[in-house]
Amino acid sequence: RSTTDRQRRATDSKADQLTELFAKVQEMQRFFGLPASGELTEETLAVMRKPRCGLSDAEPFGETLRWKQSTLSYNYSPIIPASQVKKVFKEAWKLWADVTPIHFRKRSRREADIVISFYSGDHEDHSPFDGKGGILAHAFLPGFGIGGDVHFDADEDWSFNATGYNLFSVAVHEFGHALGLPHSPDPGAVMYPAYNFVPKSDLQLSLRDVKDVQHMYGESDKGLLPERPPPRTPDKCDPDLSFDAVTELQQEVLFFKDRFMWRKHPNFDKIGITLINSLWPDSIPSKLDAAYQNVEMNLMVFFKGIYYLITHMPAVVLMFCVFISGDQYWVIRQLRLEDGFPKNISSLGFPPRVKSVDAALHIRNDRHTCILPCNVTKNVLLSRNYSETRLLLQF
C-alpha cells in the first residue's frame, strides 16, 4: 500500500504540474494575442524564441518604485565603439526626457545613479545572460546600489541601424525599466516584452508608454512640443474603427489595422491583438490595402499600394511568400529570400496604371481572384481577374 500511495502522489503531483504549465502557457498566449490553447504550438514557440528582455513578461513588479530627484546621472563602460554608444544612449534617454520633468546627465568618472554595463554570461547579479540570442538585456528598479542599473549582453552582435539587434531599440526599453516601468500588455508600446526592432527614426514612445511614465513622474516642464504625437494602439471597441484588410487564415479570421492585427478563432471567445510581424517577422508591411487566402494552393496574398505578398501556408508554418515594394518583389521561402530576387513587378503582368489595390476576393469554385485596383488618374475602380496558377493578371 505504501508503494501504491507514493505512486499515486507522484501521479497527482505530475498532473498538478501539467495543469499549472497549461495555465501558464495560456496566460502567456493571451498576453501575446495568441489563441489560448495552452499547447506549445509553433506560433507559441516562435514567440518564446524571440529575443527579449530578461524581466518577466507578465508578472508585476510589486511595489511601484520611482526616483525622487528630477536630475539623474548615468555612466557606462562600452565594449563597442564609444562614440556610437554615446549617441545611442543620449538619444534613448531623450525619448523619456521629452515627456517627463526628468533631466539626464552623463558622468564620466564619478559614481552615477544609473550604471550601464556590458556583461557576458554569469555576472553575479543572479540574472546570467545566455549567449547570442534569447535574453539581450535587463534592468533593475530605481534604488541604491544596483538599483536602476542596466546590463546588456556583451555576446550579442549589436547594431546601430535597422538590421540585427538594434542597440537603440533595446536601450529605450531597458531605460524604461530603469525609471521603474514594468512590461506593458500593449503590443504597440515600447515597454512590450518583445523588443520592437524598427529604424531609429520610426521608434516612438506609444501613448501607453507616455501615460505610464507621466503617471509616475508627471508631465514635461520643458515646453517642448513633440514632433509627432505618440501613436495609439487601435481599440477593437472604438466605434470609428475601420480595418485596412480582412482575410481568413485556416480556421481564423484576421483583421488588419496599421501594424496590428486581431485574430478571431471559432474555439476561443477572446479576440487578441498582436503585431503583424509576430506571425510574419520582417515579411509583411503595415497598413495593408487588401488580403485574401487561396485554400487550394495554400496561398495568402497581401497588397499594399503597388506592393503585394504571396504567402504559402501549409499548417501554421510560413513556407512561401512574395513581397512587392515599389516596382520590385521578393520571393521568400521559409522566411528566407530566394536567389535572384528582388525582381521587377512587370514580370508578373501588372500594367503601369495599377497604382494601388482597394480589395481582393478569392472565388474558390472558379479558382480565380477578383482584384479591385484603384485607377488613380480617373478615380474609378476597375475589376480584374487574377489566376495564381499562371501568376499573371488576366484582362
Automatic annotation (TrEMBL):
Residue stretches of each Hemopexin repeat = 234-283, 285-352
Q: Where is the active site?
A: 174
Q: What is its main location?
A: secreted
Q: Where is the signal peptide?
A: none
The residues listed in the UniProt record as binding Zn(2+) 2, with positions renumbered to this chain, are: 53, 173, 177, 183, 191
Could you tell me which Gene3D superfamilies the record lists for this protein? Collagenase (Catalytic Domain), Hemopexin-like domain
- The entry's Zn(2+) 1-binding residues are 123, 125, 138, 151
Task: List residues of the Peptidase metallopeptidase domain.
Answer: 63-219
Question: What biological-process GO terms show up in the record?
Answer: collagen catabolic process; extracellular matrix organization; proteolysis
Which Pfam families does the UniProt record give?
Answer: Hemopexin, Peptidase_M10, PG_binding_1
Q: Which residues bind Ca(2+) 4?
A: 244, 289
Instruction: Give TM regions.
Output: 306-326
* Record note on cofactor: Can bind about 5 Ca(2+) ions per subunit. Binds 2 Zn(2+) ions per subunit.
Xref: PROSITE patterns: HEMOPEXIN_2
Where Ca(2+) 1 binds, per the record, is at 156
Subcellular location as annotated: Secreted, Extracellular space, Extracellular matrix
Q: List ligand-binding residues for Ca(2+) 5.
A: 291, 360
Give the keywords, sorted.
Calcium, Collagen degradation, Disulfide bond, Extracellular matrix, Glycoprotein, Hydrolase, Membrane, Metal-binding, Metalloprotease, Protease, Repeat, Secreted, Signal, Transmembrane, Transmembrane helix, Zinc, Zymogen
* Positions that bind Ca(2+) 3: 130-131, 153, 156
Kindly list the GO CC terms recorded for this protein. extracellular matrix; extracellular space
Family affiliation: Belongs to the peptidase M10A family.
**Name under which the protein is recorded:** Collagenase 3
Q: Which organism is it from?
A: Myripristis murdjan (pinecone soldierfish)
